[in-house]
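Can you please make up a whole protein chain along with its backbone structure tokens because I've never seen that pairing?
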Amino acid sequence: MFLLYIKAFHIISVIAWMAGVLYLPRLFVYHTEAEKGSKQSETFKVMERRLLKAIITPAMIASWVFGLILAFELVDWAHAGWFHAKLVLVIAMSGFTGFLSKWTREFAQDRNTHRQRFYRIANEVPTLLMIVIVILAVVKPF
């Protein structure tokens, strides 16, 4: 029963993490259009900081904690190639989250150097990672 609760909390935290990493680059797209120092730009800064600090980072940490508990309890590490691949992709997703944090700081300091197109493309990265991660976790192809 305990592991079912851990699995439920893992899924909940992953959903929150993904919601944040899919939304924050979209905010960046709109923020690039706002004039530096404008009320709109300052509003985006608050939204971006809160999303990162209150949702994305705690959800990522919870995803890791619950996921590692499940991994140590349920995964046969010697025969889990799918899990090793998933782990690498989750590390990549965590790295992408680190880039989101960096870009949030750059916007907060009015030092963004990227254009909308950059953030539109960046917005696709977590989607692609998520698709492969879920397929690996559910199908366990190898």
